[in-house]
Amino acid sequence: MAESVDILFINPGDRKQIYQDLGDEFCGIEPPVFAGLFATYARQKGASVAIYDTPAMMVPAAEAARVAVEEYAPKLVVVPVYGFQPSASTQNMGSAGKIARLIKEANADIPVLFTGTHPAALPRRTMLEEAVDFVCDLEGPVTIWKTLQAIKAGQDSFANVPSLWWRDSEGRIQAPAEREPLVTDLDGEMPGIAWDLLPMDRYRAHNWHCFTHINERQPYASMHTSLGCPYHCSFCCINAPFGKPSYRLWSPQVVVSEIDFLVERYGVKNIKFVDEMFVLNKRHVAGICDLLATRDYDVNIWAYGRVDTMHDELLDKLKAGGVNWICLGIESASDYVRDGAEKVFTNQDVIDTVRRIQSAGIHIIGNYVFGLPDDTIPRMQQTMDLAQELNCEFANFYSAMAYPGSKLYDMAVEKNLPLPREWHHFSQHGYETLPLANDALSAADILGFRDKAWMDYFTNPKYLDMVRDVFGQEVVDHVGRMTQVPMKRKILGQ
């Protein structure tokens, strides 16, 4: 047995369960950014830490549990339940729960703490249903550190630990008496990810991220330049760990210093800014891009933006800094549906913004959501028509999902609407996925439309001609292979 560590962070996940066969070649393999950030925070406090990345190592939950117990013997296991994109925490709860249960079966004395978007949204339910000792209902790093200190001190009561749900000596669930303060000095307290604890040779970029160099998707890294989001989109749950819409920044100097390290130490070229909204604060974005433009790096970065934040004065700076892809949340072509999702812009705004970004030499991933409240078959078709008119270099088509922590989830619970029975059924690409029905559409209506839209988009001759002109025949062939991967759906009788 290896020497015991204070904290073992375990990244949960099952790519096959979440993506079906698309996970083999086409999807990205993401580093666990929150595990890496929290490890840095704990390390700076003096704790010994390790990270085990279950999906990157491509092992089942049983192996992750065995490694935890036999090779690390930690004083505290922390499972940060986040996803590969901001709203994808819930789908990893199945893997997280299984890992926790198997650890407890092997050694009931090892305490397990869950943190992340889903546990923060449903802390009491997580305590009731999962084999965990603790749940953090806010961000995590302060709570994790104080929990470790209480464990080391042999305390039976954790009442003084902020934002910590725990069990007393009689097994009763205790809610926290106070809330964890959010870390405000990100530069000083969490200055980047503990990359040395991660299997860096395992990570790879999403396929479209590398359409200009499709056979060079590794090495790859994803990182935050900010935390939180000030917006209130009805389908989004990303602010659950922060308690409210919030927005905190690392300085451009610290961000670029981390990129320096990634490039020089690991040869990283492909980078994702995983910020919930990168293109938001003009000074922040310009500061990062201006610094990157002074480097002689051939980096390939993608990041999230909004239709109403892509200001002209930033576009050339983004391109000069290596930002080659922007992901835009277009969501719907219906003003009525979009207004309900709290996205206030017109289709002409969308068209103009996409063309301006492309004119700067930056590619677009358009995000579209089918089945939002007030959506209908004609309105979903309007969205598909807009997607094909825009003909972005890539597109993500989603079904409306009531993720815990979102306004849609609260609405679904209030109206007693059918929700997925298992947490992994919240996966957009899973076999047993169950979108949220609305007054006009069943879950099967929405999913059937979404899957057909995806196929129609990526087999459209107009799209394939554009891909051939911009990226070459090899990428056209790659997209063709992607469309040949079967995507089976239980509610569609497949």
Automatic annotation (TrEMBL):
Entry cofactors: [4Fe-4S] cluster
**Keyword set includes DNA repair:** no
Q: Tell me the PROSITE patterns matching this sequence.
A: B12_BINDING (PS51332), MTTASE_RADICAL (PS01278), RADICAL_SAM (PS51918)
The answer to whether the entry has keyword Membrane is no
Q: Which Gene3D superfamilies match?
A: Cobalamin-binding domain, tm_1862 like domain
| InterPro entries the record matches | BchE-like, Cobalamin-bd, Elp3/MiaA/NifB-like_rSAM, Methylthiotransferase_CS, Methyltransferase_Class_B, rSAM, rSAM_horseshoe, rSAM_sf
Limits of the Radical SAM core domain: 215-436
Q: Where are the transmembrane segments?
A: none
Q: Which Pfam families match?
A: B12-binding, Radical_SAM
Q: Which domain of life is it from?
A: Bacteria
According to the UniProt entry, its GO molecular function terms are: 4 iron, 4 sulfur cluster binding; catalytic activity; cobalamin binding; metal ion binding
Q: Which keywords belong to this entry?
A: 4Fe-4S, Iron, Iron-sulfur, Metal-binding, Methyltransferase, S-adenosyl-L-methionine, Transferase
Q: Which stretches make up the B12-binding domain? A: 18-158
The name this protein carries in UniProt is Fe-S oxidoreductase
Q: Which organism is it from?
A: Paramagnetospirillum magnetotacticum MS-1
Q: What is the lineage of its organism?
A: Bacteria, Pseudomonadati, Pseudomonadota, Alphaproteobacteria, Rhodospirillales
